[in-house]
Amino acid sequence: MSASALTIRSQHPDPAWRGRVMGSIIALVLLWPMLVASEFKPWTLLDAQSLRATGRFLADFVPPAHSAEFLQLMLTATWQTVAMATAGLTLALLGAIPLSLLVTQSLSISRLGSGRMRWAGVLIRQGARWLLVLLRSVPELVWALLFVRIVGLGPTAGVLAIALTYCGMLGKVYAEILESSDAHASESLLKNGSSRLSALLYGALPEAASELVSYTTYRWECAIRGSVIMGFVGAGGLGQRMDESMKMLAGGEVATMLIIFVLLVACADLVSSFLRKRLS
Amino acid sequence: MSFVLRGASVRHPSTATSGRAPAGFALNDVSLSIGQGEQVALIGPSGAGKTTLLHTFACAHRLQAGEFSAFGLSPWALPHAQRHLLRARLFLAPQTPPLPPRQRVVTAVLAGRLPQWGFWRALAALIKPGERNAQIAYDALARFNLQDKLYARVDRLSGGERQRCGMARLLVSSAEAFLVDEPLSALDPALALQTLAALQQESASRNATLICSLHQVELARSHFPRIVGLRDGRIMFDAPRAQVTDAMIAALYQNAGSTPATDADQLRPVVIVAHC
After folding, report:
1. What residues make up the domain containing A73?
2. Which of B63, B73, B84 is most worth mutating to test chain A (most A CB atoms within 10 A of its CB)?
3. A57 assigned to some structural domain
C-alpha cells in the first residue's frame, strides 16, 4: 500500500500542493507586519489599572435606567434611528438598482455571440463601477460630517450619508449576486430576443431573489448600527442620546440603549429569516 | 430561405475569447440552406456540433469564417439593435430547460412573449398574469398535457415536465423559426411522440421552420422529411428521409463513443461498405 502511495506521489504529484504551501507562507509573512503596525497588544486589557476602570464603568450599568420619562425619550430616539436607516436604505436602493444593472455583465446583449462587449458598453460599465467604488470608499461617518455642515444638525444628514455609502455597497454586491447566480435562464431569454430588463425580471431575479433580499435586510441592520454611530456627530437618533449619556458617565442609560440595540438587531434578523423562508 | 450558411466555421465563444491558442472549430466549413417552413432533424454523435449549429442559427454564436443569413438578413453585418430584433423572430430552446426553479409555470411559459412585450407589460404580467395571458399559457400547456400545472412552481415539476414546460414557452412565442435542442431527452417514448407531434403541428400550422437536434435516430427518420447528419463539426450527409440508409447512419456514429438508439450490433457489418 505504501509502495503504491509512493509511486503516486512520484509519478502524479498533486499540482495544487506547492501553490497552497506558498500561499500560506505569503499570508503569514504579510500578516506579521500588519499586527505590528496595528499595535496589537491584547495583554494591556488585563493589567490591574485597566481592569479597575472597566469594573467601575460596568458596575454603573446595573440597573439599566428605566424611568418612564427616559423610556419615552428612548422610544422616540429609537423610532428616529429606525426611520433614518430605512429612509437612507430606500434612497440607496433607488441608486443601487440602476447602477447594478449597468455593471452586471451577464445581462449584456452585445456580449452574445462574440463574447465581447461593445466599447461603449465597456466604457459605461467601467464608469458605473468607478462611481460605486467612489460612493462606498468614503465612510458614512465622513459623509455625515460633511452633510451636518451643509444641512445642519439632525437626521437629514444621517439619511443622506447612509443613502450614498449604501448605494455603493448595495450596487456592487447586487451586481455580484446577479453575476454569480445561474445565468442560464436570463441568457436564453436574451438569446430569444428579450430586452435586458425583461430578462432581469423573468430570468435573473427569480434565480437570485432570496440572496438579494437577505443581503438587503442585512444591510438594513447595518444601516441601523450606522445611524447610531452617525448620531455621535450630531445626526440625531439613539446615537446622539448615547453620546450625551456617555459624556455624563451615566452607565445605566448606556446599558438601556445597548439592550435596545440588541433587540433591534434581533428584530432585523427575524425579518430576514421570515422573508427568506417566504422566498425559498 | 430562412437560413443560409456558406462555408461557416464557428468556434465556441468560451474558447474564442480566452486569447489562448485557438482550439479546433466546433463547426468546420459548414454549408447548409434551409427553406421557410421546412422541418429538419439534426443527428450525430455527442460533441458533433449540433448545439453549436443551433446557436449559430439563433445568432448566439458569431462566425469565425464564412457567411450566414437568416430571413435574408446577415445578422453580424446588422447594427446591434437590429440583430436583437432578428433574434425575436427565432426561438432557441436549449437542451436543459432554462426555467428558474422558484418561478411559477405560468410565468415561465409567458416568458416566451417577452420579445413582444415592453418593460411595463412584462412587469404587469409578472405581478398578475391576467385572464388573457393565463389562457394563452393554459392552452400551450394543454398541448403537452400539463395544463393542471399552470400555477405550480417549476421546482415542483419532474424533469420531463420541465422539458415540456420549455416547449410550451416555444408555442407561446411568435417566432418564425424554432431551433430546438434535444427536446425529447427526458421523456418516455409515448410522451416523446406526443411532444414531437405537437411541435411539428405548431410549426406546420404557422409555416415556421423547425430545426430539431435529436438523439433518437428512429424518430428522426420516421418523422422528419429531411435529415442532416453532423460529425466532428462537419456535415456528413444532408438528405431527404427516403435517401437516408442504415449504412449512412452507422457511418455517422461509427467509433464515436456513443451509439445511436438503433440496434448498433445489427448495423455494424454494413459500416465497411459505407466508407467506400
Report:
1. 66-279
2. B84
3. no
